[in-house]
């Protein structure tokens, strides 16, 4: 079988301390899963059911723990914003998962950035349109290597610190325990509307104090017990 056009590049994330890789399938994101971020976005922080949107797998940029990744300032925006997030890698799929099945579905964890064209997202929201134009674009999801799960790591990550600095200045700081919906609850709810597959990524939400970056800015993002990534915005 011959392709009529070149096949699009597949994205793979390395597994930390391993020669194995994780082939990225779909990328799901959870909207406003920290109460304080929900407030700053103008929403009621009460525990409403989580809502989801997606990024294309091609938006993922692998970033090594000891490396710097460069991402280009995207077209058509004047408000390019960062959101640090805990990323969950799915190793077992399924639909309508129980909490135990959701726990078992997790292969590992990573540090990620949900980069956003906030002005385009705001325009779409105002008109009741989908968010893809603000969320799903090239290089909008830098993600670290995946750290494989074990019971101790899962417990530590669920309570660990999550944060981001821009040019050395602290911008976002919180704890994963402040998630409105836990990792397992998010997976359960997501599996009620999509049958999950091995290879899916879930970006679990960002804390408060999101903000803009410009060309030349350096972002340093971390989740305690996983590691840190450095991402620079270039022209």
Could you explain how this protein is built, in words?
With 235 residues, the chain is an alpha+beta fold. The protein has a single domain, classed as Alpha-Beta Complex (Fumarylacetoacetate hydrolase, domain 2). 19% of the residues lie in helices and 34% in strands. It has 6 helices and 18 strands. It has helices at residues 35-40, 99-105, 118-126, 132-135, 151-159, 183-191; strands at 12-14, 21-23, 27-31, 51-55, 60-62, 68-72, 80-82, 84-90, 106-113, 116-117, 141-143, 147-148, 161-166, 169-175, 201-203, 211-212, 218-223, 227-234. Strands 4-3-15-8-9-12 form a 6-stranded mixed sheet. The chain has a 5-stranded mixed sheet with strand order 6-18-17-13-14. Helix 2 (99-105) crosses helix 6. The longest helix is centred in the middle third of the chain and has 9 residues, at 118-126. The protein is globular and about 45 Å long. The protein starts with 11 loop residues before the first strand and ends with a strand.
